[in-house]
């Protein structure tokens, strides 16, 4: 009998944590979210936000977050690319960003061109 009480308590705590996570992030319309994937793993966050500055500002985006990638030191491991999530305020701003940023070129310090990023609508939610 005590195990049922423990599992019920842990379920309640899990539900409370899930509510905190979802309430801390604004929930804009699902069609206005986008993810910029496959960014260079060593791309600094500041450089990315400067590159999207014409389209992503406080006036155009409701929510934005950047996750840095990881460069693997071992040759048999793959690098983990960086990615960014952006929620726009309206469809026109999202379309403008998609048209303008698609195919953006990044150059590293040695001048090597990296053009592997892709734009995708964000189709899942955490709720």
Automatic annotation (TrEMBL):
<dbReference type="InterPro" id="IPR012677">
    <property type="entry name" value="Nucleotide-bd_a/b_plait_sf"/>
</dbReference>
<dbReference type="InterPro" id="IPR039722">
    <property type="entry name" value="Upf3"/>
</dbReference>
<feature type="compositionally biased region" description="Polar residues">
    <location>
        <begin position="1"/>
        <end position="11"/>
    </location>
</feature>
<keyword id="KW-0539">Nucleus</keyword>
<dbReference type="GO" id="GO:0005730">
    <property type="term" value="C:nucleolus"/>
</dbReference>
<comment type="similarity">
    <text>Belongs to the RENT3 family.</text>
</comment>
<dbReference type="GO" id="GO:0000184">
    <property type="term" value="P:nuclear-transcribed mRNA catabolic process, nonsense-mediated decay"/>
</dbReference>
<dbReference type="InterPro" id="IPR035979">
    <property type="entry name" value="RBD_domain_sf"/>
</dbReference>
<dbReference type="Pfam" id="PF03467">
    <property type="entry name" value="Smg4_UPF3"/>
</dbReference>
<feature type="domain" description="UPF3">
    <location>
        <begin position="30"/>
        <end position="112"/>
    </location>
</feature>
<feature type="compositionally biased region" description="Basic and acidic residues">
    <location>
        <begin position="13"/>
        <end position="22"/>
    </location>
</feature>
<protein>
    <recommendedName>
        <fullName>UPF3 domain-containing protein</fullName>
    </recommendedName>
</protein>
<dbReference type="GO" id="GO:0005737">
    <property type="term" value="C:cytoplasm"/>
</dbReference>
<dbReference type="GO" id="GO:0045727">
    <property type="term" value="P:positive regulation of translation"/>
</dbReference>
<feature type="region of interest" description="Disordered">
    <location>
        <begin position="1"/>
        <end position="35"/>
    </location>
</feature>
<dbReference type="InterPro" id="IPR005120">
    <property type="entry name" value="UPF3_dom"/>
</dbReference>
<dbReference type="GO" id="GO:0003729">
    <property type="term" value="F:mRNA binding"/>
</dbReference>
<keyword id="KW-0866">Nonsense-mediated mRNA decay</keyword>
């Amino acid at each position: 009998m005590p195990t049922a009480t423990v599992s019920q308590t842990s379920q309640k705590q899990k539900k409370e944590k899930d509510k905190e996570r979802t309430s801390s992030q604004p929930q804009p319309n699902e069609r206005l979210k986008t993810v910029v994937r496959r960014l260079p793993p060593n791309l600094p966050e500041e450089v990315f936000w400067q590159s999207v500055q014409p389209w992503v500002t406080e006036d155009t985006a409701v929510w934005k977050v950047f996750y840095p990638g990881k460069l693997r030191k071992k040759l048999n491991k793959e690098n983990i690319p960086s990615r960014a999530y952006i929620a726009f305020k309206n469809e026109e701003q999202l379309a403008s960003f998609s048209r303008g940023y698609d195919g953006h070129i990044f150059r590293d310090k040695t001048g090597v061109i990296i053009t592997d990023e892709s734009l995708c609508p964000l189709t899942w939610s955490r709720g």
